[in-house]
Amino acid sequence: MLIILFTGFASGLPLALTGQAMQAWLTVDGLDLATIGFLGLVGVPYTFKFLWAPLMDRFEPPWLGRRRGWLVLTQLALAGVLFLMSGLSPRLDLGSFALAALALAFLSASQDVVIDAYRTDLLTEKSEYGLGASLNVFGYRLAMILSGGVSLLWAEQWQSWPRVYGVMAVIMLVAAVVSLLLAPRVSSESKPLASNPLGELRGFAAMLAGVVLGYWLAHELLILAGLRPDDPNKWIQLLFVVAEIAVALPLAWWGARLAKFETLNQSLSSYFSQQGAAAFLLLIILYKLGDAFAGSLTTPFLIRGMGFNQAEVGIAVKLIGFWLTIFGAFIGGFLMLRLGLYRALLLFGFFQLLSNLGFYALAVMGKGAWGAVMVQPFDWVIVALKAPASLDFLLLAVIAGENITGGMGTVAFVGLLMGLCNRRFTATHYALLSAFAAVGRIYVSPLSGVLSESIGWSGFFILSVVFALPGVAMVWWMRTQLLALSESPTSTQTE
Questions:
Q1: pLDDT tens digits, 154-166
Q2: How far apart (Å, rounded) are the C-alpha atoms in residues 180 and 411?
Q3: Where would you find this protein in the cell (predicted)?
Q4: Residue 242: pLDDT band by 50, 70, 90 thresholds?
Q5: What average pLDDT is seen over the chain?
Q6: In a domain, 189, yes or no
Q7: Cα 188 to Cα 61: distance, rounded to the nearest angstrom
Q8: What is the domain range of residue 163?
Q9: What phi and psi values does residue 390 have, to the nearest 5 degrees?
Q10: Residue 284 domain-assigned?
């Protein structure tokens, strides 16, 4: 359980650095909302990580073990990319910055593949899932307090986002050392698939070729149709992105099957042999969709839309809010033991839906509607506030509702993902499921940027409630399968 807490921290640290912390950097550098929204697509690797997860299931780095070896390697690479980003400026060199952020997301997604598999391998009994999920969320949110909360205070204090990213690189380097020295090997029961290593690499190369071909075909066909990717119309730009992904993914799948990428093919066949496998994937996409839509532009909304400064956002949203998420996660884990998976998903999903109305109220009523309290300057060694800052009471109420319910929903959601994994293909199965879970968070980002400029913030948050409804309905519709999943023997033991 202690190692699950640590790996949750390591997993959460880089996420905000390609998400809300990066949004704050882009916002203070003066980039427009639509561009910030499109840069959310650097998180695309989170939705495709199941494509290279089979290599992490199949190959074992020498001396370190299959899970621990990949964990150390990805963490060292993350530290290197963060050092690189600390020397870049999004305003002066947006292209290089975006490529570095994409590399950071790729390595972060790869680390998540290892950590999710490692956690699922360690927890052999379903009775451990609630506590394990709570500790994972606890560590994850602790890291996001640092990278998504304290980082904003550091940026305000130092007037330097590059310096913040340099500090995060050092922290990730320390995490790699801790993983190397303290992380235990998993049980010998978890064995990689016995297949031809060269065949696996050929299959992976064929899959990548399918991605490149699909991207090129969609791009060229739209140009032949008279459209241009640099069109000032943001909807045209969005069409290019959606079409390129829509064509690339099936061609990647076709290439993997044609070249016999056995670990991917067998692991996916293993998952889809389960009853209701496709329906579970749809549920995973929809369950957090409204939450993801509302949260996709939270930082620009608060800084630019509502006029809060970085220190106010850092204290209220990132520090206090993340602690409330941890509180919600522990409440969720406790209630889940008594409610079971189905009732927890249904109840917590409904609470998540209601919490989005808080952002609508903030957009309509505005800053200062409920008054504010002043926070006096402080110095806690790792973080300091040099000038007094106000904390808006309405903002605090909205953040409390959103983070507590979000933490509760995340615990039930992680329990669902773990319950659907098979131990032989843990990395690929969990990567597949969590990749589908990230679809909303990543792909609503460019849409949300365009919509927020088109319909305004109040309409944007009402739409987020509408997007949350299908997920709650899907839980109710799948109640029989969810009840059976929570009552069945663990599916993660053997095939």
A1: 887 777 888 999 9
A2: 28
A3: Membrane
A4: confident
A5: 80
A6: no
A7: 15
A8: 2-182+196-487
A9: -90, 150
A10: yes
Domain presence at residue 187: no
SS (H, E, C) the chain: CHHHHHHHHHHHCCCHHHCHHHHHHHHHCCCCHHHHHHHHHHHCHHHHHHHCHHHHHHCCCCCCCHHHHHHHHHHHHHHHHHHHHCCCCCCCCHHHHHHHHHHHHHHHHHHHHHHHHHHHHHCCCHHHHHHHHHHHHHHHHHHHHHHHHHHHHHHHHHCCHHHHHHHHHHHHHHHHHHHHHHCCCCCCCCCCCCCCHHHHHHHHHHHHHHHHHHHHHHHHHHHHCCCCCCCCCHHHHHHHHHHHHHHHHHHHHHHHHHCCCHHHHHHHHHHHCCCCHHHHHHHHHHHCHHHHHHHCCHHHHHHHHCCCCHHHHHHHHHHHHHHHHHHHHHHHHHHHHHHHHHHHHHHHHHHHHHHHHHHHHHHHHCCCCCCEEEECCEECCCCEECCCEEEEHHHHHHHHHHHHHHHHHHHHHHHHHHHCCCHHHHHHHHHHHHHHHHHHHHHHHHHHHHHHHHHHHHHHHHHHHHHHHHHHHHHHHCHHHHHHHHHCCCCCCCC
Q: Is the pLDDT of residue 488 over 50?
A: yes
Domain count of the fold of the chain: 1
pTM above 0.85, yes or no: no
pLDDT digits (tens, 9 = 90+) for 71-112: 889 999 999 999 999 888 888 888 888 899 999 999 998 898
| Closest to 283 (Cα-Cα) out of 79, 46, 52, 471 | 471
Which tokens sit at 352?
């998540």
Contact 113, 277 (CB under 8 A): no
How confident is residue 277, by pLDDT bands cut at 50, 70 and 90?
A: confident
What CATH number corresponds to the domain at position 151? 1.20.1250.20
